[in-house]
Each structure stands twice: as structure tokens, then as C-alpha cells.
Specification:
With about 280 residues, the chain is of the alpha/beta class. It has two domains: about 5-210, Vaccinia Virus protein VP39 (Rossmann fold), CATH 3.40.50; about 245-275. The chain is about 30% helix and about 20% strand. The chain has seven helices and nine strands. It has helices at about 5-10, 15-30, 50-55, 110-120, 155-165, 190-200, 250-270; strands at about 40-45, 60-65, 80-85, 95-100, 120-135, 170-175, 205-210, 275-280, 280. Strands 3-2-1-4-5-7-6 form a seven-stranded mixed sheet, with helices on both faces. A two-stranded antiparallel sheet has the order 8-9. α4 (about 110-120) links the parallel β4 (about 95-100) and β5. It is elongated and about 100 Å long.
């Protein structure tokens, strides 16, 4: 079951939520840069992490699942969010260059169908970053935060799920080492610096980036009817039912008659040959 959008907004307005927003937003900038001139989709409840991208990207759209609810974003500007179905995003194929998924996969009833829709709307060679609660982290065991809801993932589990959705993992990182305690939110930056060196396996969140790869397909050949032309000098049929030879076959018949005449002349010469000499004179 998904958390209500009001609960999510209340969490990210708290000190602990602001720390989570800062840590995750930094990782997104490291992965994408400023996303200048790109089309970006914030799917789930990812709008708190794309504030920087909103300033530089050509377009940033927020899509929130229907079971969660939707809020107006960004504040004080024209609304750029919409309510969507998890397995039927209302966008054309290959529209977005970058997609950020947060609070989307963990609580989805069908994570594979959810990510396949991500694959569909992602442009060729586009990149998606999926943010999930880490299985070994403290945040997955704290129900006071939105990351304590749904299914946490390990790195291998997340990579396998992305591959099943035909997305190829290209990188991963961790974030949010501060314990999910409100009074420790002010030390989030210090925990982030030391935690990545001393106890990297206990991060609260796992961020994995994947790429949509497309491959060239060689088109298959198609059969085509070819007109067969009969040769002009084709041999004529023989027998009782044969028809008269066409004019084009006349030289062949004349050649046969010429060979018969030569044969008859040679035969007559051989017959006269024994009588050719009489007393050394040629016979008349």
C-alpha cells in the first residue's frame, strides 16, 4: 500500500526530510549534471530531488501514482505534475532523456510492470536512476519514515529487476547514512562524509542507474515475383504435335539440311572411287 501524498509532503518538510532531500539531490546531480536541454520525468514522489534540474532542463514533469495522490508542483508556478497509472503512463514512447524514480518501486504491486513502463517512455540511450531503501540500512527498519514502507532491495536484487525490465545497470551508489532520528538531522552531512568510508554497507538508500540500450536490427528479406523471359533461340519441340518452327529457328534447320547434303556428296564419291582408275587413266 502506498503512502499518501500528504504524508510524504509532511516528511520532506521536516528536518529529517530536508536532510534526505539534500543527500539524494546531490547524488542525482553527480549522475546527470545540470540536465541542460533535456526532458526529465520525476516518477513516484521524486519532485523534491529535481529542484536543480528544473532550473536547467528543457522540461521537467512530475508523475505520481493514483493510489498515492498528486500535489501541485512547483510551488508558485504553472503546475507540472499529473496523476498516472503505474502500468500505463500517459506519455508517448521514448519521450524522456532522464527519469528519476523515488517512492515508486518499493510500494508498487507489480514492480516489473512499473519499470517496463519506465523503459517504454525512456528515450534510446536514456538514463534512469531508481532510489530505493537499502535492505541492510537503518531506514528500511524505521516505519516513521516513508522509506520504512514497502520492500527494501539489495544491490543484486535491484540489478536483476532492472535487467528483467530490459534496462542495463550502469552504476550505483549509496546515500543517507544518518540514523532516521529527528534530532540527528543536523549532523547528516558529517554522517554522509564518514559513513561512506567507515560503514558503507549501512547506508539508508540505494541509488542505481540504468541505461536503455537499443540494438540495430537487420531487416529480413522478402520474396518477390520475377518475370522469367523465354530465350529467343529456344529449341522447338519435336513429334506429331509439334508446330511449325518460327522464323528465328530457320538458321538451325538450314544448317541441318546443309550437313545432309555434304554427307550425300561424300557418300557418292566413295562409291565412284574404285572405278576411277583404268590403265592409269581416269574413267570418263
Amino acid at each position: 500500500m502506498r503512502r499518501d501524498v500528504l504524508e510524504l509532503r509532511q516528511f520532506y518538510a521536516s528536518d529529517l526530510g530536508k536532510a534526505a532531500r539534500a543527500m539524494v539531490g546531490r547524488k542525482v546531480i553527480e549522475a546527470w549534471g545540470d540536465a541542460r536541454g533535456l526532458d526529465v520525468l520525476a516518477l513516484g514522489y521524486a519532485t523534491p530531488f529535481v529542484a536543480t534540474a528544473h532550473q536547467a532542463a528543457r522540461r521537467v514533469v512530475g508523475a505520481m501514482p493514483a493510489q498515492q495522490g498528486v500535489e501541485v508542483w512547483p510551488a508558485g508556478e504553472a503546475n507540472m505534475t499529473t496523476l498516472v497509472g503505474e502500468d500505463s503512463l500517459p506519455f508517448p514512447n521514448a519521450l524522456f532523456d532522464r527519469i528519476l524514480v523515488a517512492h515508486g518501486v518499493e510500494e508498487s504491486p507489480d514492480p516489473l510492470a512499473f519499470l517496463r513502463e519506465v523503459w517504454r517512455v525512456l528515450a534510446p540511450s536514456g538514463r534512469v536512476v531508481v532510489v530505493v531503501a537499502a535492505r541492510n540500512g537503518l531506514w528500511a527498519n524505521s516505519e516513521k519514515t516513508p522509506f520504512g514502507q514497502g520492500r527494501p532491495y539489495s544491490r543484486s536484487q535491484m540489478a536483476e529487476l532492472l535487467r528483467e525490465a530490459e534496462l542495463e545497470p550502469s552504476g550505483w551508489t549509496r546515500a543517507l547514512y544518518v540514523p532516521p532520528v529527528s534530532w540527528m538531522a543536523g549532523w547528516a552531512e558529517g554522517f554522509e562524509q564518514t559513513g561512506s568510508r567507515l560503514w558503507p554497507g549501512f547506508a539508508g538508500l540505494l541509488l542505481m542507474e540504468a541505461v536503455k540500450q537499443t540494438f540495430a536490427v537487420k531487416p529480413k528479406g522478402h520474396a518477390q515475383r520475377v518475370r522469367r523471359v523465354r530465350p529467343i533461340l529456344a529449341p522447338a519441340p519435336s513429334g506429331a504435335g509439334a508446330t511449325a518452327a518460327p522464323v528465328s529457328q530457320a538458321p538451325a534447320s538450314m544448317l541441318r539440311r546443309g550437313l545432309l547434303d555434304v554427307a550425300r556428296e561424300s557418300l557418292s564419291v566413295e562409291r565412284v572411287g574404285p572405278r576411277a582408275k583404268t590403265n592409269g587413266k581416269a574413267a570418263p
